[in-house]
Amino acid sequence: MTQTPQTNFSSQEFIARLRGRDSSAVESIVRAYTEQLYRAALGLSFDAINAKELVQNVWATFMDVIPSFQAKSHVRTFIFGILYNKASELRREQVRFDSPDPVEHVLETRFDSHGRWVQPPLDPERFFMASESIGLIEKCLESLPLAQRMAFYLREVEEHESPEVCKILNVTVTNLGVLLYRARNRLRECVESKVVKRGA
User: Fold this and answer.
1) Which residues make beta-bridge pairs with 117?
2) What is the C-alpha to C-alpha distance for residues 183 and 18, in angstroms, rounded to an integer?
3) Measured at the alpha carbon of residue 29, what is the angle toward residues 27 and 35, in degrees to the nearest 5?
4) Domain with 143 in it: what CATH number?
5) Which residues span the domain enclosing 169?
6) Which of 25, 45, 92, 197 could form a disulfide with 17 if both were Cys (CB 3.0 to 4.6 A apart)?
7) Do 186 and 103 form a contact (C-beta atoms < 8 A)?
8) 183 closest CA partner among 150, 139, 136, 135
9) What is the pLDDT of residues 104-152, one digit of tens each?
10) pLDDT tens digits for 71-105?
11) Do residues 21 and 67 lie in contact, with contact meaning Cβ atoms separated by under 8 Å?
């Protein structure tokens, strides 16, 4: 049976060369796995441009961390672990910050072309009286996307400072603002819709 490149890549001698960023060792790894990484990125539903960018990010990260590679897993597992981490990061960015949020469309429908209310919000007293129902608020919080729910909870419930929340969630201050804006609007829409249904 012909020995596979993966088997050769497991040898201690090869790993040592890789840790030392030996050019021929690095080139052989890149040649062996670039096409596989690209196909995997496409399989994760990224388009060709994002798939190529992901692969480039994988190799850039690989070169940064390879000196500390302990060979506790096969180098292929290590590389694909980087791919999935990078793919998760990109997907989170796309979902959280690039995609339009449905609640923004809902808010737009409350105004006519002249900026006048078509569907005014509940008056503050009615809104906050309804909001006193813990069960109602908790149910609405559960409906928020995870990132928005965590941002709202950490900032408004636990009262962490914004810089600390950004570190916990690994987001920028701008992105945190987007998350909180959308979370607050979703909560208001949810509470108001439930109050109207109850006839409060």
Assistant:
1) 111
2) 46
3) 105
4) 1.10.10.10
5) 102-198
6) 25
7) yes
8) 150
9) 555 555 566 666 655 565 555 555 555 555 567 777 877 788 678 778 8
10) 887 888 888 888 888 887 887 776 655 555 555 55
11) yes
Domain count of the fold of the chain: 2
Cβ distance 156 to 150 under 8 Å? no
Q: How far from 93 is each of 9, 86, 144, 169, CA to CA, in Å? A: 34, 11, 17, 12
- 28 plus 62 within the same structural domain: yes
In 3D space, the residue among 110, 103, 89, 88 whose CA is nearest the CA of residue 145 turns out to be 103
User: Which pTM was predicted?
Assistant: 0.47
The structure tokens listed for 72 are: 């506790």
Question: Considering only CA atoms, which of 57, 78, 77 is closest in space to residue 66?
Answer: 78
Q: Does 84 lie in the same domain as 116?
A: no
